[in-house]
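In the laboratory, one determines a bound structure by crystallizing the protein with its ligand and collecting diffraction data. In a computational setting the workflow is compressed into a single prediction: the sequence and the ligand go in, and a structural description comes out. We illustrate the idea with adenosine-5'-triphosphate.
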Amino acid sequence: MKKEVIVVKKLTKYYKRKVKKEDSFWKHLIKRDYEVVKALKEIDLSISEGEIVGYVGLNGAGKSTTIKLLTGILHPDSGSIEVFGMNPFKHRQRIVARIGVMFGQRSHLLWDLPLIHSLDLLKKIYNIPDNIYQESIELAKKYLGIGDLLKIPVRTMSLGQRIRGEFTAIMLHQPEILFLDEPTIGLDVITKNEIKKLLHYLNEEKGCTIFLTTHDLRDIEKICKRVVVLDEGRIILDDQVNNLLNKVESQFLSVTFADMRVPESLLQFEGIEVLSKDKNVARIKYDRKYYTIESLLKKLMTNYNIEGFYLEQPDLEEIILNLYKSRRNKVVV
Ligand SMILES: Nc1ncnc2c1ncn2[C@@H]1O[C@H](COP(=O)(O)OP(=O)(O)OP(=O)(O)O)[C@@H](O)[C@H]1O
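The predicted complex, in structure-token form:
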């Protein structure tokens, strides 16, 4: 069994936040009060070496707070955290040497200087051996195309170029865990794809464990094997992405009939709902309690002359959206 690199038990974090008192107009101006924000409520989480975990939640769910606690930036109010068996708040220096952290808005780079200066400086700060440093730069050139960016001042880079630089900076020492807070926000599809390939390389070839947050569930599907969903400070789902996709009860299929129109008798089939008809094409929702895709196609082909079909893949976004809806019993948009 793989060893656990992150173990979190009953982790709770409160923030105290100033609010204006509402007693009277004048008190508005002069008096302040505090409210307590329960950002994380007794969460349990363990992550094994080599996992790629997507950490998902609506705005304010507590994702960044979790990363700040796991990387020793914040101290928990109660519960325990172990990263490599150590308390990250007490042993921050030792842990920092073995992890890479990326927060969307914060930069590891010197704004006015060419990228290579920041990388050289980080090499000195973290005492990165020459061979590791060179290998990392080569990897960043290969996967992120940073060759042309090394001599450019960071201040003049586009968002995508800067994020390539940030990725290079956090992987220079070849960390054992990467914590990435919304690493793909605002990036185009090509840059996202490069990052996905780099992350898979680091995971598969270097055994790097990856913990990332994102609002883009397509990123999770492409990059992560496991997804953990946080809602209002509590973990409401923790499963392998494949398991979730396989558990979906309804699947969607578009069928093209050889005849010029969709047969009326299709509506009589149990376990099938015809969602739309357009000439000889029907979009069908079928219940997986009744059919596998094979049994459904067999039934359709026995009864009709089928010209073609297209199976729509279940989508993680819909699964998670339904989960939020069922928790709140109202539509979440
Ligand atoms: N420094 C702070 N002081 C007070 N409250 C805070 C502070 N930081 C975060 N919070 C509150 O804690 C809760 C969790 O915030 P957090 O930033 O962890 O959420 P998030 O899931 O990362 O959100 P987003 O997706 O919007 O980045 C929110 O209600 C937020 O307002």
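The pocket of adenosine-5'-triphosphate is lined by residues 15, 17, 37, 39, 57, 59-65 (CB under 6 Å). Keep in mind that any predicted model is a hypothesis to be tested, not a measurement.
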